[in-house]
Every structure is written in C-alpha cells, then in structure tokens.
Specification:
11 helices, mainly alpha, 57% helix, globular
C-alpha cells in the first residue's frame, strides 16, 4: 500500500519501534482486519490500559503468587491450567523456530534474532516476528497471555514483563527457553534473587499445579540444568 493511500484514523501515530509481542499482535490484527495496523498503533493508551487491566484480573497477574494460586485452583477443578494459552506446544515450538531463524522485520525492514539470544539488543526487543500469513495460520503463540505481554510492552513495563516470564517458567508455558532468557535479561544483576524466587515458587506450587503422573515442567527443567541447581533438581525428580 502506498504511503499516500494509507488508512489513517484517530489512533494513527508516526511509526515507532514495537517490541516482540506487540509486533506479533499488530501483524495478526493486520492480517485479519486490515493492514492499517502496520502503520499505526493498535489501540490508544486508554484502550491498552483497559486491555491490561482486564487480562491482569483474568490471570491474577498483579503478582505471581496470586496468578499461580489461580492456576492451582483451575487444575484442582479439572480445568485448563493456563486458559489463555490455546496453541499446542508443538505449534509454539515451530513458531519459536521461525523466530530463531531471523530474517527481515516486516514492520521495520531490519533483521534480528530470537528473544534472549544476547545478540544486538534486549530480550523483549530483538525478536523478528514471522510474516502475517504465518501468524494467521498458527495463531498467537500464547493466545491472550501474549496479549497481556503486548500490553506490558506497550507501556515499557519491564517489572510486569519480568512477572510474566517468572510465571511462564513456573507454570510451564512453552517455548521454555524464551521465557528463561527473558527473565535473565530483565532481572539483570538481580537474577540470582529472581532465580531463587522461581525455585521457591515452584517448590510451593509444584504439587498443586502439576498433579498428573509424570507431569513435567520443561521450562523449570531448563532452569535447573542451566543454573546447575542440584538440590532443587533432586527435589523435582524425587516428587516424580
């Protein structure tokens, strides 16, 4: 679409950098509802705030402990542990492979790598989204969970993004290595304390959130291996 024919409405602003999930959401919306969303913000700031507040309440994501308690209650009632995550693990891993392959960002024309690869930028800002048709076929990798992440990205709220990453590790939202790298990057010098907090949360909620026989948490397993947490690994294996 030529610049002179772009559709502009009251949400239009001059192009600005978008982070991973906000860009993915823009691509999905544009493919399904019109490519104007590639030339303007998805929502106004008050609309983003409404989306954020609704989804925070939905997940209990004002703090990680509350969100995990909600997940445990759903599991206890025989419901889906993470109701916003509707795409299968295999499809999410396939999409993650596309992210890792790199390429050209369809919004900015610039290349990049997977979130958390440590090359050329911060975790949440350096992932190249797949093309809109790929996203349309596969869907947002984490459903409405990713929409909440996009809202936090829009407001550059790194504390809330760190909360998302910690929750994703403890409750095993794939792709596992994405959230582990994201947590490390956002935590910075505080990573040892955040890592220990993840272990504490998992020890508290493991038998409440993962109650099936041989029910694994791949994200937590990667944390144990990468951080060489022998005692925590033994506790994890003993319960299985």
């Amino acid at each position: 679409m030529s610049k002179s024919n772009d559709f502009h409405d009251e949400n239009f602003i001059k192009e600005r950098p978008h982070r991973t999930m906000e860009s993915l959401l823009a691509a999905t919306m544009s493919y399904r509802f019109g490519y104007r969303f590639l030339q303007q913000d998805l929502f106004t700031d008050p609309q983003w705030k409404t989306v954020r507040d609704i989804l925070e309440r939905y997940f209990g994501m004002k703090d990680v402990t509350t969100a995990l308690r909600y997940a445990a209650e759903r599991v206890h009632d025989g419901l889906q542990r993470n109701p916003g995550v509707h795409v299968s693990a295999s499809i999410r891993q396939d999409l993650d492979s596309m992210l890792r392959a790199g390429g050209n960002d369809h919004r900015k024309g610039a290349g990049g790598g997977v979130a958390g690869d440590g090359k050329g930028g911060k975790t949440a800002e350096n992932t190249v989204p797949p093309s809109p048709d790929e996203i349309a076929r596969r869907g947002l990798p984490g459903g409405v969970f990713d929409v909440l992440e996009a809202a936090y990205e829009h407001f550059d709220d790194n504390q809330c993004l760190l909360r998302i990453a910690v929750y994703a590790i403890v409750s095993d939202i794939v792709p596992a290595h994405r959230y582990l790298a994201m947590a490390k990057d956002l935590a910075g010098d505080e990573w040892p304390q955040i890592r220990d907090r993840i272990v504490e949360l998992f020890e508290e909620f493991d038998n409440k959130v993962f109650i099936g026989y041989d029910d694994r948490n791949v994200a937590y397993e990667q944390l144990l291996v990468q951080e060489q947490l022998g005692d925590a690994a033994w506790n994890y294996l003993r319960r299985r």
